[in-house]
Write a structure and sequence with these properties.
The chain is mainly beta. Strands 1, 2, 3, 4, 5, 6, 7, 8, 9 and 10 form a 10-stranded antiparallel beta sheet that branches. Strands 11-14-20-16-17-19 form a 6-stranded antiparallel beta sheet, with no helix packed on it.
């Protein structure tokens, strides 16, 4: 879209010198496509064309017509015209050939028409630009020959389709400026040859293929020489794509002068791998990139002669394909205002233990060490059980995830592996005494062998690492077992001979036997017997044997053999030092006392003697960064609410008084939607479906364990959707409040999620599986009408640890009364995730995709009528249940990003205006009386939208 605007700006700039070359009369139009029954009409300077094309399967045909024009030279001027296409097939191609008086082709151009559009195209001999590609092989006549006729060819593939075209404003204009890049490989080089890059040219795009095999984050660097330009006068625009995008990927761009000094520096976190346009403007965060002032060393007036690209990737082994090109100079975009939000205080206080081990300090006194999870996840706590003194140790790296497994070694030290780092913490020294970066993300289970060696089995690639505290030796055993899905090795059992048995899942269960001395690895379960959608846990039992089990499914293990049992063994599991829980709490002190409780919200720690007597309480305090929030919405009464997690809670903000309250929720409130005076909630895990009245206390406890609806509780408990989904991603309430719908992804290891439909009048809840909706996909965007029609957009993502089996997301309509899906389509093409819907009116709904695209769907015609790329605005503040599109109640639609807030035109999805938010936004937001309420970090915040955009 940005480049299209550039063409319009260019056309406007040369409007004075533009010259019309068509006389506007039908008599100057000829065609040879009689079989398509064309109808031509002239309306002022526009030629309207309607035709039908009935093309056999597997074939393609051309609809061709010609227009006689006033003579002009493509050597002196460029051809410009406006073209409108309707009823487009994404495979359509449009060709333009300029002929001289003898019929020779002087210039040939083409473009792919992928969606219905109305835009200006510019044809310039010898180069691509203006939306058209130059087709040199067609050209037969001299470049200087006058053009007297234009041949147009509309190419369509098989099908019975109508053509509806309009051609207008045919004129000649001065040639557009020369491209910055000369399009030659000789101007491209890499300063990191270790990645063995392969460069190729495709039109005005540079394609790059390279490989990464790195232990920590590294940069792939390449240079593109450009014609000199000044960033003081214009902004740099270019297109970039990274189809094999990984989490954490970043792109840096440095503009260098002739001496190699940095004139301009910019970066972006890549959340969208599709082709998109970036605009680099000095001292301005706009166009999808952030200005990086600390890098700049040279005056902005110095001419830029080279662009240096840095592609940053985290640890891993991957092949990478990149494409960059279409370099242009464009006018500086308008400055985007930066707004400081109003701080309304803590959203949720406290934190959560992600592994707690009893220990003793250097003086031999009882203490606890805690892997703390809060909004920043960056500290280890050591709390004295005697005095309450709390020491905070900052992690020696910046984590991007929490702890999922930890273990207390026999040496009294604590161990974990998370955020690509193995760590050892010594409570006697109150510090991390060993840290090692690794390729895989995090441990799902850990164990200590008979010699004191610590092992960690990791997610998602199922790697194994070991550390010997006595010798300091760290081993990387690599990937133990390859699968097409993310693996969860949740149990390790150490055999008497110090070999390891590891159980994993979830899409399919498996047990692995590892010989640490030799590195030999044996998969024990035959492929045909691997349990689907399950994890196997390997454990010792009281009969002296080791079993791999899932519920009542047992395999008895003997060395490298596993025998499937017909019945449950007559033995009990023996607790072992394996870990598989993120909530591990070791309560026994070496002194013989026990940890009774610890509360991170109130700062109280209670211990007792082994028999429960002699209870002692100490208080402690730590730097409180609060709980993260899942999402925010506001009731009709103006009460702002949001679900917190770790600890699970529901926070309320009363804007008029400034009062804030916190309700203990007993469930992770993934998706919330306010309607009337109520908050409607879908919770993880188990797909818990509820309605909360904020005027009353939260009195529902243990909702995940309830089997019957409780219509008298608050929140009202309608039931669990576990049978069809456990992780809610979408929620919607009909305008009249009658229907409440939620959906999401299924159980761990499974593929295909369903929806839960609640009739709020009767309390009845209906569960609909994915097989009746969009098979092997999961709901991620929902809207529901008063008439009982559910509009849904899906994601191809599986349940956690499952296999992705679909390739494209679907749109579908489900009729609540007919109890069936009445329409389904892949109309959005290669989109993998449709993230959210918002209602515009009774028929139109605006949607948002993971590709950074807004679209409008018309429920009556069942067509996508508008598509607009807004990825320039940056990363959406989406959370697990996306709330980035919100209504202000006055007809305005707003997009909420992690850095920007933008007002969206509800007619065509264009960005009308935007503002950068100082400090950013965490997850979504809600608007009440012109005020945007959201959470940033651990704080409630607000912005007066009317004041910003007045």
């Amino acid at each position: 879209m940005k480049k299209l605007l550039h063409f319009f700006v260019f056309a406007a700039a040369f409007a004075v010198s533009a010259q019309s070359i068509w006389n506007g009369e039908i008599s100057s139009v000829r065609h040879s496509a009689y079989k398509h029954s064309p109808q031509f009409t002239a309306d002022g300077g526009a030629l309207n064309i309607k035709a039908s094309m009935n093309i056999p399967a597997g074939k393609h045909e051309y609809f061709a017509f010609s227009i006689n024009v006033s003579a002009f030279s493509l050597q002196e001027k460029s051809l410009s015209f406006h073209f409108t296409t309707r009823q487009v097939d994404p495979r359509d191609i449009f060709y333009v050939k300029a002929r001289n008086a003898s019929g020779q082709v002087v210039g040939s151009f083409y473009t792919r028409i992928t969606q219905s559009t109305s835009r200006t195209y510019i044809c310039t001999t010898g180069r691509d630009g203006g939306g058209m590609t130059y087709f040199a092989s067609d050209v037969k006549g001299p470049a200087g020959d006058p053009v007297v006729k234009l041949d147009f060819f509309y190419c369509r593939h098989d099908g019975n389709n109508a053509l509806d075209l309009t051609l207008s404003d045919i004129k000649i204009i001065p040639h557009p400026p020369v491209e910055l890049w000369n399009g030659q490989l000789s101007s491209v080089s890499s300063t990191t040859p270790k990645f063995s890059p392969q460069f190729s040219i495709d039109g005005d795009m540079l394609n790059i293929r390279t490989s990464f095999d790195i232990q920590k984050h590294e940069y792939f660097i390449f240079d593109v020489k450009v014609n000199p330009f000044s960033l003081q006068e214009k902004s740099l625009s270019f297109q970039f794509a990274s189809p094999q995008l990984l989490a954490g990927d970043m792109l840096y761009i440095k503009a260098l002068d002739a001496s190699g000094q940095v004139v301009g520096s910019f970066y972006t976190r890549l959340s969208n791998g599709n082709m998109r346009t970036y605009v680099c403007t000095p001292e301005s965060d706009t166009g999808g990139v952030t200005y990086f002032a600390s890098d700049v060393k040279a005056p902005i007036t110095n001419p830029v002669v080279k662009l240096r690209f840095f592609y940053c990737r985290m640890a891993g082994k991957n092949t990478m394909d990149l494409a960059v090109g279409k370099f242009e100079l464009v006018p500086h975009p308008p400055r985007v205002p930066t707004v400081k939000a109003r701080d309304l205080g803590f959203a949720v206080r406290g934190g959560t233990c992600r592994g707690l081990h009893t220990a003793k300090d250097a003086d031999g006194n009882d203490c606890v060490v805690v892997f703390l999870m809060d909004d920043i996840n960056r500290r280890m706590l050591q709390i004295s059980a005697v005095t309450g003194q709390c020491d905070e140790t900052v992690l020696p790296f910046r984590p991007r995830d929490a702890v999922y497994s930890s273990i207390k070694g026999s040496n009294g030290k604590s161990y974990s592996l998370f955020a690509h780092h193995f760590v050892e913490y010594d409570p006697a020294q109150k510090k991390f005494t060993f840290v090692r970066q690794v390729k895989d993300l995090c441990a799902m289970s850990m164990a200590e062998d008979n010699n004191g060696v610590i092992y960690a089995a990791t997610y998602p690639d199922f790697c194994l690492y070991s550390y010997n505290p006595a010798t300091g030796e760290f081993k990387d055993f690599g990937q133990l077992h390859k699968e097409t899905f993310a693996q969860y090795p949740r149990s390790i059992t150490v055999a008497d001979d110090n070999t390891l048995y590891i159980g994993t899942g979830n899409a399919r269960g498996q047990a692995i036997h590892v010989y640490p001395d030799s590195g030999r690895v044996v998969a024990l379960i035959p492929k045909a017997e691997e349990p689907a959608g399950k994890s196997l846990f390997v454990r010792r039992f009281t009969d002296g044997k080791i079993y791999a089990r899932h519920l009542d499914l047992f395999f008895r293990i003997d060395g490298d053999n596993a025998v499937k049992l017909d019945s449950v063994p007559d033995a009990q599991m023996i607790l072992s030092p394996f870990t598989g829980s993120q909530n591990l709490v070791i309560r026994d002190f070496d002194s013989g006392r026990k940890l009774v409780s610890i509360d991170f919200a109130t700062g109280k720690l209670v211990t007792s003697a082994a028999d429960g007597s002699d209870r002692r309480e100490v208080t402690f305090s730590f730097t409180n960064h609060g709980s993260p929030m899942m999402g925010v919405d506001v009731t009709a009464d103006g009460i702002v609410g949001g679900g917190g997690f770790f600890p699970f809670c529901f926070g309320l903000l009363y804007p008029e008084s400034g009062e804030k309250t916190i309700q203990a929720a007993d469930v992770q409130c993934n998706a919330i939607a306010a309607h009337g005076k109520y908050f409607y909630i879908a919770g993880y895990s188990g797909g818990i479906i509820m309605r909360f009245d904020p005027d009353k206390p939260w009195d529902l406890t243990n909702p995940m364990h309830r089997t019957q609806p409780d219509l008298q509780s608050n929140p009202v408990f309608y039931g669990s959707a576990r049978r069809v989904f456990i992780r809610p991603h979408a929620i919607a309430v009909s305008p009249d409040g009658r229907y409440f719908v939620s959906g999401g992804t299924p159980e761990y290891g499974h593929t295909g999620g369903g929806i839960a439909i609640v009739d709020t009048q009767s309390g009845e809840m209906t569960l609909v599986p994915h097989t009746e909706l969009a098979p092997l996909e999961s709901p991620h965007a929902l809207a529901v009408t008063d008439a009982g029609l559910i509009l849904c957009g899906t994601t191809i993502q599986s349940g956690t640890g499952g296999e992705v089996k679909a390739t494209e997301a679907s749109l579908f309509i489900y009729d609540i009364h007919a109890r069936k899906t009445i329409w389904r389509s892949k109309e959005l093409g290669s989109v993998q995730d449709i993230l959210q819907f918002i209602r515009l009116d009774d028929s139109r709904f605006m949607g948002f995709t993971s590709a950074g695209e807004l679209f409008i769907f018309d429920l009556d015609s069942r067509r996508v009528t508008v598509r607009q790329d807004i990825s320039e605005i940056g990363t959406p503040a989406r959370g697990q249940a996306c709330r980035v599109l919100i209504s202000d109640g006055e007809g305005g639609i707003w997009f909420i990003g992690t850095s920007y807030v933008a007002k969206i035109d509800p007619a065509d999805c264009r960005i009308l205006r935007k503002a950068k938010i100082d400090g950013g936004i965490q997850t979504g937001g809600a608007i009440y009386r012109g005020i945007l309420y959201f959470v940033a970090g651990h704080r409630w915040k607000s912005i007066d939208l009317k004041e910003i955009f007045k």
